[in-house]
Fold this protein.
Amino acid sequence: MTTFSELGLAPDILRALDEMGYATPTPIQEQVIPLALQGGDILGAAQTGTGKTAAFALPLIQRLLPFANNGTSPAKHPIRALILTPTRELAIQVEEAVQAYTKHVPLRSLVVYGGVNINTQIPILKTGVEILVATPGRLLDHVQNKTLMLTQVNTLVLDEADRMLDMGFMPDLKRIVALLPTQRVNMMFSATFPEEIRKLADSILNNPTFIEVARNETAVTVTQVVHPVHHERKRQLLAHLIKSRDLRQVLVFTGTKLGCNRLANELNKAGIHADAIHGDKTQQERIKALDAFKAGTIRVLVATDVAARGIDIEALPYVVNYDLPHNAEDYVHRIGRTGRAGALGEAISLVSESETRYLRDIEKLIGSTIEPTIVPGFEPGAADVPAFQSRPPRADRPERSSDRPATEHRAHRAKSAASRDALFDAPYEPSSTVPPVESTPALVRPGPKRQVAALFRSPVKSDSAGQ
Ligand code: AMP
């Protein structure tokens, strides 16, 4: 097995890695570090969790060592390496990693991101920093204010480039790149490679080496679970899973900011300590929630994709897709939050009937099918009436709204709405019709060929499908 010292890293960097408990390089580190030390451009296909931050940061730091300890004059500390990330959270985490890796070398780093007072960043910039981690918008604010100079940058890193594209940063990126010296080393990382990302790579990178870490290199450590469930019962199922399986540190993804707030409130009402992070929360609120989640004082962090981007939590055990992402690539990003650097993780998706098409897209992208697992008491198609109310046997009710006479339609809709409201108002209470659960619930696994969509049409009896 290769060691970090065999990769050619300097003793002061090795010491920091040793103190951080990094014993051996991850596959992407093994491939990227030697190449980047030689100054070659790199295009990396890697998700968060593969160790990509160290893969680009360690060689970057080593190549800056000749510039370290150049005296105290700020002019001796121009920005030499620029690392761009799509979100503030990721920027903060990358800079924390850089701080740790540079613990024993006199190189300075700083992170600048939007949403906080720009004036607090200026005094530090004035003292000079060699490594700057930034989100594109705030970087350009500083450029415009002439509070930083990019004329000495010799290394550019674009982290999570596909997300920068999704977030509309492409024009900002182009403006930034135009400000940099043309002689420089470039490293670009992306989990996915749509056409625009390939074009961006062509325009920025110079004869790059393409380095890919097989998707399943991380995925092997992530168990993927799909629970088909009626959409109105998702909140109850989530609370049920968390309580019955005693899940802690659960990162839950929702599709909207509104849904994000609402779910966090509902979980709190159900006695599960939760907080929400999304784009409408202030930076302080987001940091506070993230810190509380990391420290274990809140059990569930409900997040939108943008807010959760790049969140790095040591050994995060559970990711829940409360809403399936409409974009299959977001699924890969989401589940990349868990099972990092060899730790075990579980990605749980709650899939309603209308979401089965997104599941198909996901399965196509990841190249495998995820076998649906029905949780007893939460059988799909069996929740038109909340489980804690008595309800007629399934056969007595119309299968689908289209089978129902038009006169009944409105009445049914009103009843459904009332049921839905009742669901949200009701405290979490496992229904008497739900079988009692042990600490790990007995899960029902339908036959391997069973399609998730079909499960919504032919009700599956938990006791007849085999344990
Ligand atoms: P990243 O993919 O860069 O976000 O890294 C994911 C996590 O793995 C972070 O918590 C890193 O500190 C950790 N990590 C990165 N490289 C190693 C390594 N070689 N050994 C152990 N942990 C690592």
